[in-house]
């Protein structure tokens, strides 16, 4: 199977070379490497041109943001499997692609494979919410842990089924991932590290109101109304409480979880 690796970038001269090298070092050779640049002005293209004979395709033109550039990469891709590696990330080791392709070959009904990532440059205020990726058993798991697109390999036919990323610059990959789950595409977890993911890199999204409300709208689309309300409380109210009030909230949350757990045990005894 051919794997199309797509890197979208804009003014990435300080870090894109590591991303390129990590792709070119792969032991699996049936790789199509596409770079979609947004007309960089900082020397990014000069760095790319150092490796031009080993890169399948380079496009440098104006776009309407990162997701528009990613969609452009999807349309250009000829591979059976698509993977997005940001310009400030790098693959974990030389056998990443080989191992993932083997997983697809051994699981023909799987449309999406995901693995773990090394989180780097995580802001201190975000660190408590960052979790190592694990097996997704239900839709709510996606809400709790999410999946960055750098952890995901997807068969191209999945995009034919779900469509590409939305034009919104806010959480379009999260929206797309939930649409994949809603479409009953079979997903598989591989217990290995895929890449080093720069948390505050090219696609970093902070927790200002515009990001929070965009995520809230996506949750409203795919989850029960009660989950939507809980999100609003957790992210809009809780994040604005001071540390003392937050401690009180965590105490109440712990008490509530224990209460529910005990109630379930009581119900089990009845049967």
Plain-language structure description:
With 271 residues, the protein is an alpha/beta fold. The protein has two domains: 3-205, Spore Coat Polysaccharide Biosynthesis Protein SpsA, Chain A (Alpha-Beta Complex), CATH 3.90.550; 225-270. Helices cover 44% and strands 18% of the residues. An eight-stranded mixed beta sheet has the order 3-2-1-4-7-6-8-5, sandwiched between helices. Helix 8 (209-222) runs antiparallel to helix 9.
Structural class: alpha/beta
Q: H/E order of the elements? A: EHEHEHEEHEHEHHEHHH
- End-to-end gap: 52 Å
The strands making up the biggest β-sheet line up spatially as 3-2-1-4-7-6-8-5
Q: What structural keywords apply?
A:
44% helix, alpha/beta, 8-stranded mixed β-sheet, 10 helices, 271 residues, globular, 8 strands, disordered C terminus, Spore Coat Polysaccharide Biosynthesis Protein SpsA, Chain A, 2 domains
């Amino acid at each position: 199977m051919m794997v199309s690796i797509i890197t979208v970038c804009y003014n990435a001269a300080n870090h894109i070379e590591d991303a390129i090298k990590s792709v070119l070092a792969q032991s699996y050779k049936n790789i199509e490497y596409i770079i979609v640049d947004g007309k960089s002005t900082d020397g990014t293209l000069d760095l790319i041109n150092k490796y031009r004979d080993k890169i399948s395709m380079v496009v440098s033109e104006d776009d309407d943001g990162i997701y528009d550039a990613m969609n452009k990469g999807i349309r250009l891709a000829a591979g059976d499997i698509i993977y997005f590696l940001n310009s400030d990330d790098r693959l974990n080791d030389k056998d990443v692609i080989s191992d993932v392709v083997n997983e697809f070959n051994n699981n023909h009904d799987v449309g999406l494979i995901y693995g773990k990532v090394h989180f780097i440059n995580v802001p201190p205020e975000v660190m408590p919410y960052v979790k190592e990726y694990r097996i997704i058993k239900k839709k709510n798991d996606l809400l709790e842990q999410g999946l960055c697109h750098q952890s995901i390999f997807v068969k191209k036919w999945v995009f034919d089924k779900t469509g590409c990323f939305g034009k919104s610059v806010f959480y379009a990959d999260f929206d797309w991932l939930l649409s994949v789950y809603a479409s009953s595409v079979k997903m598989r977890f591989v217990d290995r590290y895929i890449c080093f993911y720069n948390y505050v890199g090219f696609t970093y999204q902070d927790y200002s109101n515009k990001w929070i409300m965009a995520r809230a709208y996506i949750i409203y689309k795919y989850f029960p109304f009660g989950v939507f309300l809980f999100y609003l409380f957790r992210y809009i109210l809780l994040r604005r409480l001071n540390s003392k009030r937050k401690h009180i909230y965590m105490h109440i949350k712990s008490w509530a979880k224990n209460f529910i757990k005990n109630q379930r045990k009581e119900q089990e005894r009845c049967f």
